[in-house]
Amino acid sequence: MTDDLKSLSRDVRGFVRERGWERFHTPKNLSMALLVEASELLELFQWLTPEESDALSEAQLAAVVDEIADVQIYLLQLADRLGVDLAAAVRAKMVKNAAKYPMGERAAFERE
Fold it and tell me: What are the residues whose beta carbons fall under 8 Å from the beta carbon of 44, sequence distance 6 or more?
């Protein structure tokens, strides 16, 4: 994991420990909380057109940033709890994605 991710994980772990929340932060609960936060992020875009979603107001963007942070916090906690190196996992998944979706090939939904 990169130093930035390790540092963030340490900070979040400390925040949770200081509040005595460790017993609640099981992989199951963290996964559910992650989904709730991702849904809150989705809700901010729910009725926007694609164009509107590309041109958020300052207030809308601030709300999106908060929800992205919440998603990241729970993802960091889940990875930390399971001993997953997020940076390594993302790199490994990108290798799999590159094999699954080679450059130059169009996706089925793009084909005419």
Answer: 60, 63, 64, 67
d(CA 112, CA 71): 36
Residue range(s) defining the domain that contains residue 12: 3-110
Instruction: Please state, in angstroms and as integers, the Cα–Cα distance from residue 98 to each residue in 30, 91, 102, following that order.
Output: 29, 11, 5
Does this model's pTM top 0.70? My answer is yes
pLDDT tens-place string over residues 48-75: 999 999 999 999 999 999 999 999 999 9
Number of domains in the chain: 1
Q: What is the CATH number of the domain that holds 46?
A: 1.10.287.1080
